[in-house]
Amino acid sequence: MTRYAATTEVSTDRSKAEVERTLVRYGADQFAYATSPGQAMIGFRLSGRLYRFILPLPDRQSEEFRLTPNRRTARSDAAGQAAWEQGCRQRWRALALYIKAVLEARESGIISAEDGFLAQAILPDGSTVGASLEPQLQQAYANGKMPQLLSGPLALGDGKPRLEISR
Fold this sequence. Notes:
- The chain is α+β, with helices and mostly antiparallel strands and about 170 residues long.
- It folds into 2 domains: about 10-120, no CATH class; about 125-160, no CATH class.
- Helices cover about 45% and strands about 15% of the residues.
- The protein has 6 helices and 3 strands.
């Protein structure tokens, strides 16, 4: 299967700007960005809730970028760098598509933004709903018992976000 935007020429900077413009158009009012090796982060506030997306970026040292796809021979450093940059551009385009799709679905009355971005919602302890629930979901499927959802800091806390994002 072909990846969405696998051959895009849209730069990562243009995709980031598009993500922010889209979010602003649908009511987001605070933004944060960060990068570290292998990932990028975008955070925003929408309808009073904070959200954080961690975007996994490709590993520059993976065979996907060191070797040619067909013959599996070594690529030149320049060709490997170009392929890696293409992989980064593709991921930013996919994130832009996802965010736009969720917000348009919200605008059309199909889902709420809260439902579309639930896994990325930031909890009072700074974790996301998805990261907090994933171990509980795994256990529920393994033992067939319903988890005690959102136990711990949220259940005991005051419900106020502790992570501040400024524009």
